[in-house]
Amino acid sequence: MTRPDPAFWSGKRVLLTGHTGFKGSWAAIWLSRLGARVTGLALAPDQTPALHDLARVTSLAEPLIVDLRDQAALDAALAGRDFDLVLHMAAQPIVRTSIEDPVGTFAANIMGTAHLLQALRGQAALQACLVITSDKVYANAETGRAFTEADALGGKDPYSASKAAAEIVTQSFARSYFDRAGVPVATARGGNVIGGGDFSRDRLVADIVRAAQAQGVTVLRHPESTRPWQHVLDCVAGYLTDLQRLATDPATPRAMNFGPRPGGPEVTVGDLATQAVAALGARPWRHEPDPNSLEARTLGIDASQARTLLGFESRLDAPEAVAWTMDWYRRQGEGEDALTLCRAQLARYESL
């Protein structure tokens, strides 16, 4: 199976947006391990604790604290800096936050992407750029069918709509500017990601960990819902593999799904929560329906294109992903160092 190649990444100048977030922190740790020269660009962490701080990501990536909604500030931050590769992960990533603040979500996810791509037009050394969107970009009629990259884009909540719009913005910049310059610009659509170090509001695993620490009860809105659960290492590995291929093969498709292996066990929100609370020795979860929720009840993505064209597929199924995730939280809660834990799981993952 194809994996991120240290021989390719060593010495590469990589701009990683969103390095202060959960997935971005894992990406910074892995890129540093691969020998890349990482520059992170993002807002400061908006939560305490944050994996970025616990894992000392500032020691691994040169930090640029910039708001992507501000074109002038972004241009000034990038002036005089050259990059070989760009991995754009910065976003407002929470569905319920998007319901509360749709305009702010559109500004971050749509205009933030447009501002970044506009700034990158001046990058003479750029080899490839990968924009991370979401498995929620598809027009979901709740049929239960897994979406392929050719399916129609949509989004009935502001987060999903903002990510679908970011796909269109990326395609337009690619076709208008970057294709002419011979620079592949593409999007990647990942599944529902879990892993150690996610402390975000309204995230299932983070909510379970917080409830366990407070000896409280996790409340689930839709325990019957299904999601394409994916460990953060599988997701980031897919992104890095895709960006690596884009830089070396311009024929690589400009959109790619990353999700669980086909044929794996279907795991509902309730199933995942049951396994997670058991791993932490926490109290059983409780169901409180939210009749006003716009979240999809069923969601699946077909990652066969990544397997066929990139030679990449996820290595951990959902139960394994939960086990790895809760082991990280348990050990970190007992006092083990977050960066050491991340590096140990990376080494274990690479040995699979």
Question: What do you see in this structure?
Answer:
By secondary structure, the protein is of the alpha/beta class. The protein has one domain: Rossmann fold (3-Layer(aba) Sandwich). Helix content is 42%, strand content 12%. The protein contains 13 helices and 11 strands. Strands 3-2-1-4-5-6-10 form a 7-stranded parallel beta sheet, with helices on both faces. The chain has a two-stranded parallel sheet with strand order 7-9. The protein has a two-stranded parallel sheet with strand order 8-11. Strand 5, helix 7 (158-178) and strand 6 (185-190) form a beta-alpha-beta unit. Helix 10 (269-280) packs parallel to helix 12 (318-333). The model has no long low-confidence stretch (mean pLDDT 95).
Q: What keyword list fits this structure?
A:
two-stranded parallel sheet; Rossmann fold; alpha/beta; seven-stranded parallel beta sheet; 13 helices; 42% helix; single chain
Short description:
The protein has 13 helices and eleven strands. The chain has 352 residues and is of the alpha/beta class. The model has no long low-confidence stretch (mean pLDDT 95).
The first-level CATH class is given as Alpha Beta
Kindly state the number of beta strands.
11
Report the uncertain regions.
Answer: none
Number of separate structural domains: 1
- CATH homologous superfamily classification: NAD(P)-binding Rossmann-like Domain
- Could you give the order of the helices and strands? HEHEHEHEHHEHEEHEEHEHEHHH
The overall pLDDT, averaged over residues, is 95
> Total number of helical segments?
13
Helix content: 40-55%
Distance between the ends: 10 Å
- Structural class of the helices, strands and pairings? alpha/beta
Specify Rg, calculated over alpha carbons. 19 Å
Shape: globular
Largest sheet: 7 strands, parallel
Beta-strand percentage range:
5-15%
